[in-house]
Structures are given as C-alpha cells and as structure tokens.
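Subject: complex prediction, re-run

Hi both,

The earlier run crashed halfway through, so I resubmitted it with identical inputs.
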Amino acid sequence: MEDLLDPSIPDIYERIALWTVDASEADLAAFFSAYNKANKDPSGEKDLIFINWTRTNPAAALAAVAGTNMEITSWWAWGVNDPEASLAAAIKAGPKFVSMVAWGIGQSNPQWVRDHLEEFPEIARGNAVSGISQWQDGQDPQGALDFAIKNGQMIDERTLRIFLNKDPWAAYEWMQKNGARASRYYGNQDGSMDLLLKNMATSQPEVLQRIADQTPPGDAKRKMNRLLFDQLVKTDPDAALAQANATKGPRIAAERLAAVSLSKIAADPEQGFATLNRILELCPGALTGQITTRGPNSSIGSSSDPVQGVSDLLNVLVAKDPARLLEAQPPGGSDPSGGQPAFSIIADTWARSDLSGLAAWTNQQNDPKVHDAAAFNIISQYQNQEDYASATQWAMSLETNRSNSLNNLVQNWASRDLPSCQQWLTTADVTPEERQTLGKVLESYQSR
Amino acid sequence: MKAALFQSSVKIGGALAFAGMAAFGWLLEAHRMGGNSGSSSTDPVALMPGRRTKPQGTPEDVIRKVRAIRNLQDPVERMRATIALARSLSPGEIERWLDHGWFTFHSGPELIVFTNLVRERWTNADPASYTRWSIANQISLAGGAWADWARKDPQAALSFLKDQPIGSLIQLLSNAAEKEPALALEAYRNLLSRGVTAGTQNYSLSFFQQLVKKDPAALEGLLSSLPPALQTQAEMALAGPKLATSFSTEIRKLWERPDGWQIFQGSMGYDPKTGEKLLSELKNLPSSWRASLISYGYGVTTNNALQWYQADLDGAGFSATQCRQLRSNAIQTLSNQNPGQAIDLIKSGDFSDQERKGLMANLISMLSSYPDKTEAALAKLDPGEERQQAQTMLDQYAALRSTPKTNNPSDWLEKVTATDVPRGAGYSLVYALREWGPDELGQLRESFQTLPDDNRKKVAEALVSGNGSYSDMGLRGDAISYLLNHPDDPAQPGTRRNRTFRSPDLQLASQYAVDLGRKDPASAGSWVQSLPSGEAQNWAQKNLASTWAQYDPDAAGRWVQSLPAGNRAEVQKYLDNGSKP
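This time it finished cleanly. Structure:
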C-alpha cells in the first residue's frame, strides 16, 4: 500500500485503479485514511477510492467523510455508481447533497439524466445537465449537443469534435441550424460555428475546402478561406505568399500578408517592417479595421471588421523598434477610412508597452506637431494608470491645446482624488487664466 | 488481429476468462460482419467536387470491445475490463479512441476511469505527442503534459514551443510552472525574445503568480529582462508574498509609487488576510489610495466584509460619502456570502431610502443565483409586501434565465403588435430572435410580408429600433425596405426610431447595406435596388460599393456596372474620389 501514497509516481492513477477495484471495504477505508493524510489536495486518485467504496457500501463511505471537504466526493461517487438510490437519498438529506449527487450522475449517466430530468429537484437540474458536458459523448454526439442547447447549457467542445470526426457534413449542417442558440454563452452568434470551422480546418481541411467552395461570397466564406490560408502558411509558406501577393481585395491581401509575415517574424523581423508599410499602403484602415458609412455631409456611422493579424504584427514590431515605426508616419495624418490615424495607434501601442521609452523619444522631438501628437498618447496612458501627477506634467508641455487638456485632466483627477489635485494646483506653473478656470473646477468638486 | 486482442485481454486482467455468451458472441459477430464498414476515401463518387463524403464508421474491433464491456453484468468485472482495455492501447490508438469517442459505454464510472487512465498512459509513453494533442484538444491539460515532456527531454520540449502561437503558450506555461517551474521559466524567456505582445499581459500575470508560489527568487531574477509593461505584472505577483510576510513595510513602499495601488490590487489574491491587514492601516492611507479603495477595492472586503462594515471609517479620515460607499461595498460582498446577515445590515444601517432600495435589489439579484440560500434569506424580510416584492423579483430573474419559450412566429408577431406593448418589451422580443433557427426566421419573414399595413409598420419599427442589430439580417432588410417605401406622413411623424440623425432613413439604409454587404454582397446589391429612388438609395449604393470593393473589387465593379446609368456614374465618381463626398 505504501507505494500508492506518492502522487508523483507517473502511473499512480493506474496503480490505484487496479488496486481499488479488488480491494475490500476495510482496505479501502484504511487506504483512504492514509492517502488523505499524505495528500491534502483532492484529486482523481481519491475519486477512485470513493467510486469503489460507494459501490460496495455507500453508507459507510459517506459516513467516513461526512462534514469534511471530501463529503462532496463521496456523494458524487455514489451518484456515479447508482443514480436512483443516491438521488433518492440526497433528496431526503438536503439540497446541497442533491447538487453533489446530480453532478456525479450527470458525469457518468447522461442517458439516465435525460430520461429522469424531471425527478431532479429544480435547483440541481443545472448541475446534472452540466455534469454531462464534463465528458465527451461518443454514443450520440448530436443528441448530446441537442440536449445541451435545449437545456440552456454550453456545448461541449470535445463532443463537438467527435461529431465532426464522425460526420463533418452533418456537424456543419447541425451548426447552421443551431449555431445561434449554441452560441448563447459566447457573446456573439457565430461563436460556435467559428469553433467548428476552426477544428475542421485542422482535422478535415479537404471538407472545409469543399464547404467553402459551395458557400456564396461574404463573411462566412471569408472566414473559411482564412482558416484554410492559415493552414497553407504552415504547410507551404511560399505558396501562401504567392497567393497573398495575387489577392485583389485590399483587406484580404492585408490579412494574408500579415499572416505570412508573422510566421517568419522570429527568423526575419526586418521583413515585418516592410510588410507593415505595404499593408498600410494597400489598406490604410488596416490597423483599426474600421468601416465608415458616409452621408452627404459627414460620416453617419461606423462598424468594425478587424484585419486579422495586423495588430499582432504591429505589437511585435513595436516591441522591436517603435521609433522607426512612428517616424514613418505623419503625426496629423488622417485615415481615409475614417479611423484613428496610424501615428496615434502606434504611439498608443508604444505607450502601453513602454511608456518611459515613448516619453524619452518624445522629449527629443523638435517638431511641435510630432511632440504634441505623441504627448497626447502619453497623457492618456498616465491617466489609465491613475498617475495624474505625470499626466499633468506632460499636459503642461503641450504647445497647442494645453488649457483644454489640463481642464479635462483636472476634471478626472478631482473626481477621483480631490486633495491631491488641489495640492498640485497650489504650486503648478499655470497661467492666471488657467488657474482661474481650474480653480472653479476644483470648487465644484469640493461641494460634492 | 481480433484473436490476438482477445487473448491479450484474457492475459491482462483475467477478466474475460469466463466462457460467457458475451465472449462467444464476439466470435459470432466477427464471422458475420467481416470487412470494414469504415470510410469511403477511395469511393470515386465521394471525391467529386461538391459531393458530400460519407461519414466514417466505427471499426469492427472497437465495436466488439466496447460491447464486451457493456454486456458484463458485474460492475467489478466491467471495471476490470475497462482498465484492461485502457492498458491494451498504444498512444496512436488512444488518440483515435479519444478523437472519435469510441468508448461509448456511458452508464457508470467506466468512461471516467478509462479516459483518465489512457491520458496517464499516453503522457507516460509519449509526452511529446500527448502535448501536441492536448494543445489542440484540451488546452487545460497541455501544461501538465508539456511539463512531463520537459522533465524527460528538455531540449525537445523547449524547441517544440518555438513554433507555437504565443497566446495559448503562456497559458500552457502557467500550468506547467506548477510541475516544472525552472523549465517553464526557460520557455518563457524564449518567448520574450519573440516579442511578447501587449495582448498577453493577462496570461503573463497568471504565469508570474504560479512562478512566485514555487520560486520567487526566479521571478525576481526575471524582472530586469521583462519589457516594461510586463514588469508591472511581475511586480504584482512578487508583491503578494512580500505583503504577506511584512505588510506594514511593504505597503509603505507601495504608497510611494505612482503605480502602487495598481500593484497592490494585482497582488490581492495571494493572501486571504489582506483585507484584515489593510484595515489596520486605514488611518494612514494616502488620499489617492482612499479614492482607489472605493472605486476598485471591492475585492479587499472578500474575506472580512463584516469587519469592514463595522470598522471606524470616520475615525480613519474618510468623508461621510466615502464611509457610506465603503459600507455599501461590504454589504455587496455579504449579499453573496451571507444574505441573511446582509439583509439585517441593510435594514439597520445608516442609508438613505434610495441606497437601501439599491442594496436590496442588488442582494436579490445575487440571491437569484443561489436558490438554496433563498428561503433563509426571505425569512428575514417582513412577511407581506416586502417578502412578496422580493419573491416577484426572484421570479422575474428566473423567467429571464430560462430558455426563451417562444420560437413561434405568430406568437411573436402577436406580442410585438399588441396595443399595450410595455417599453422595453419590444427590445427584448427582438433580442430573443438571435437564438431562432433559420426555419422559424424564414416563417417569420413570410408572415411579415402578409401583415396588414399598420401592424407591418409596428413590427418594422420594432425591428429597426435601438437593438436592431440582433434581428435577423433578412428580416431587418425587409423592415427597412418597407419603411422607406412607406414613409411617414409628415403631418404625423409617429414614433419612428432614432431621431438624433437628421436623416434616419439614409443612415438606416446605408448602414444596413454595408452590414449586409459584408455578409452577403449579392443580396445586398439586390436589396439596395429594392429601395425607392432618392437620396437614401444613392448613399446606400455608394456605401455598399465602397465597402464591397475593399473585399472584392472585381465583383463590386461588376455590380456598379449593372446599375442604371445615372446611379452608375454617381457611384463611380464617388469611388474614384477615394470614397469621399
């Protein structure tokens, strides 16, 4: 028995499984006592003890750990072995025991749950149903998924994969019909379908290719092609690059170029800089993915379709040589697609990853336009960190819009920490007009 | 093959030594079935373009083995047979068994034991392939698997990570750090040289927290090689044990730093006594920390909420408003942990009526997630109105949580067109559509077309109102097209949607054209042509063309060419001008 007490033994689960299946009740009780002393963390091995113990003498197993943190395991294990008896007993014993037992029954006896769902007290039904999705269902994956969505549960990814492996077309059709409901917990209606397609791209790319070919042009087709392209980047990077270069749609080209570039970035970061420049030429809005809707006088709306990979590429390059990226962009430039200009996005990324680096670079800039544009991002980042002292210091260094910037800052600072802000104003080197305006702001917060 | 397997099962467990009908049945089946009813990869028909492939069947020997287990009546025999089966599989076979879910017997503990057992055997036999499989199939196990591999073959395991995408890797290393902190750290250093991106900050924090539990000195050593953004994360992790051992010294160091509160907040999970210790320093808190405590310090009350409620907050220098906010934070924590006690405090505490109502509402909403605590909590309320109101709120929450009951188009239409539709009900009815399947939505579209005018208008307005993005695209398009073709009588403007835009029709039509254009450009093209001619249609054409061209300039160009001459010229001019007015 001693060699079963060490959880670091590589085949410990197997040893305990073999020993417990034949162990007598007395042996199991003794072993549990020793194992519990030696190992404080509950684990799969302890489950084995109770699985075997509750099969032979549930009452004794439960009694041995009643009131301890192993109580849950004992009821769970009884549920695993004997849904009917354990549920009846748990209902008599109280709601928390019903929850424990339901969890065990769900994990081990999904069909019994489906057949007897109404017998579970309402508060435990959720546990029973979600217990089912803890383990893959190979018997009837489609039935399992149907049951999950009917009962408001998340679908189990492993069961989805089994379904996919069994019959990818049926899985796809199921998802077309049920994807929206299955995505309830994803926060976007396509979450489950995306999961399916992602898995299909690695396990059955030829099926995915056929589905893509049969799908009319639009978002769905693009997603599939993107997944297939990502596979191509892995299997044949030269072909992938050729395809990227031949792509006509600027957004798609940008995405493909980014994917290829990222795959080579560790070995050859230099091509990353060239690629990003090319991406911005082809698709100026690539950094934000913004799509602006226009009207006769102004923009009337916007939506976003991020160009995948471009942000990641930017992040890697900013980590390597942010100054170089920033120097390649005009500070006041506007993005023709209506989004935030490239300079601002790059500066913002730099600010979030290395604020003092950006600050040092900005201090060296002689062109006030460049200085102020970068300072804007620095101020913003200091505010995010609640470091108002530094933020105001930078606001003081602005050549244009200084007063407005100070005003905004002081509003935020005063609402968060009035005393410190008041302290700052007493010695701040502001103009008399500024002092008057800011003083009034502070007064208004004083009275709150 | 089949005979050999039967023998090996007998050898291993001795379980199948009995000469039962089940065992005999195996051999009969083997004779009858013959051949493999598996995949059709050589079927020429299946390879034709556009043709579905036939589903893969389960191999015969798999079916037999599982049936043999299923047919055993004695649970001990079944368990022995399950263990024997698990022990008979090679890593390659294990992978297929897991990927296809071949262990279909699922009435008892067998599947659980089988799955755990084969995973252990796989990682022991071939940690490299098990790691690869886990990364793709069960990321939560991948860290442990990689750690097992790294222990056996550090070179190979470290090298393998070089090609893996960074995001999931850091999560993997967080788990691996528990078993093999030194190797996980080395892998993390390799990652740094690849340029860890800003987006991985959250995962890095959990890696640092894991590392600090095992080897704080190692994390301290890593600090200087970290990019600045990650240094803060590392300091958050390092602060945990430091504050736990010498709180008063360490907290004073944090007070001196502008990012001090940020670090403190990030460290809070480490020591359960943090809330208690901070309470003892309340009088000394700098003013910036007081403000942060109220806005972001909710977590501080987790382990000693009652103490926070009862603390002498005025004496510690907090303003009256701040005191009430802190007490309210404490009550929110208690609402979760001990609703009965929280109710007592809400009733007896120094709160305004409005604050009391807010705290109670918040408590009841939390209670709705803990039905087993409800009865005891409700008993604390006055019987009669107070308890009744609480019960009503709980019932409403329960109704919200349950699966939407109506996927029935005529039912839905009836609700939306009812004369007394309460505010917000239209919104939630449209929101519910997001879970409908394509059949029901198709029926709804058909029904929409046959509604009498005044009802159709009502439904159309509901569909394009505030949360219209949840309505099905086709239905939404029908609604917008209807509204544009049946404009409001200027004398009776009605309750049309968003009046903040000067031209709501124009905005609605263009935004929809762009949204549909991304999803299904061909349909968007036809839809735009279904609009009445005028400014709204013109701009919808321009916006659609310009968006479409970003994805597929050829197809967009062909569509523009198909437009009537006047429109065509205008749209082309717009595109040539860089999509600017």
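Residues 1-49, 497-502 of chain B have pLDDT under 50 and may be disordered.

- K.
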